[in-house]
Amino acid sequence: MFVNLSQNEGEWFPFQNSKIDQLTGEPVFDDPDTEAKVQIRSMTPFFEERISKRKRQVEHVMNPKTRQMERVVYYADLSVAEAKAERDEAYDYAITGMEGFKDSKTGKIIECTRENKIALMKVPAFDRFFARCQQILASSGIKEREEEEKKTSTNGSASLTNADPE
Predict the structure, then answer these.
(1) Which of 6, 24, 14 is nearest to 132 (CA)?
(2) CA distance 70 to 115
(3) Which of 33-37's residues contact partners 24+ apart within 8 Å by CB, and which partners?
């Protein structure tokens, strides 16, 4: 099987409308929509790349217990405008495709453009759906890693038990 690691366009998810349950405060998702679907990829690689490019700041702070100066390294906080721009870029990165979404006023199909992606993220039901998809993608990555670890540990122990006792 050949896998292209350089290009990950994401997984397709059928859109699910949602409402907030008044008693529990938890989102309740409807059945998946048969027409509208969204292609979403994990935002983790985007933020890992962004953080690696940020400049780290260093300060020396006195430790009150030891009375010695300690070196503290941290990333500078982003301004409000920088944080908003980075969030919008993350949404643009994560949403790679849309099908079946129509504007309620005009009835026209909503194209998969940066402006439309950012506008959709301002809709509470779409924001909840997007967050759920990100959770699914994150948990699937964890499950895949656990399965790979189980396979490697099982194969390693099997090769030890099948070895000749010479």
Answers:
(1) 14
(2) 46
(3) 33/100, 35/99, 35/100, 36/98, 36/99, 36/100, 36/101, 37/12, 37/13, 37/98, 37/99, 37/100
Q: For CA atoms 44, 47, 49, 51, give the dihedral sign.
A: negative
Q: With contact defined as beta carbons under 8 Å apart, do 110 and 103 qualify?
A: yes
Whether the CB-CB separation of 134 and 43 falls below 8 Å is answered with yes
Cα distance between residue 29 and residue 25, in whole Å? 13
Query: Which tokens hold the place of 152?
Result: 């490697």
Contacts with 92 (C-beta within 8 Å, 6 or more apart), sequence order: 114, 117, 118
User: What one-letter code names the amino acid at 37?
Assistant: K
pTM for the predicted model, two decimal places: 0.70
pLDDT along the chain (166 residues), means of 10: 59 92 91 90 92 87 92 87 94 94 91 94 94 92 65 56 46
To the nearest 10 degrees (0 to 180), the angle between helices 80-94 and 114-121 is 110
